[in-house]
Design brief:
single chain; 128 residues; mainly beta; 47% strand
């Protein structure tokens, strides 16, 4: 085989088609559910893909608008009822809202947000 000009990306920033009738606010976790983007929430079968760069309103049908999400390590709120602790660094944490995480999957009711990198007084540093 000969030379090939293979296109690449940095692997952090992607655009995703939004679910119908949703708003995703800048700075909130973006998840995919059945091929459509929405904000993080308590539900199963969600895949966290990053954090929204800007607020996007999709008042149309599924896929009518796109949201840009960036993967990385972000400071998220620590759930008051099921908090992530220092002993959880290196483990997975789970979504409890658009910008909050918990230590456990809530007996199978929460989706994975990402990997805990640090915990401090301001919240939980999560790699998504």
């Amino acid at each position: 085989m000969g030379e090939r000009n293979t296109i690449s990306r940095d692997g952090r920033r992607f655009s995703y088609p939004m679910a119908a009738g949703v708003t995703i606010y800048a700075g909130n976790v973006v998840v995919m559910q059945a091929g459509a983007a929405k904000e993080g929430l308590v539900a199963t079968a969600l895949v966290a893909v990053g954090v929204a760069e800007a607020t996007v309103v999709n008042s149309g049908s599924a896929g009518a608008s796109m949201v840009d999400a960036v993967a990385g390590t972000y400071l998220l709120d620590n759930d008051a009822v099921d908090p992530v602790g220092l002993a959880d660094i290196g483990n997975d944490c789970y979504l409890t809202g658009p910008a909050s995480v918990a230590k456990t999957n809530g007996t199978g009711t929460r989706s994975r947000a990402g990997r805990v990198r640090a915990v401090d007084v301001d919240g939980v540093w999560v790699t998504i």
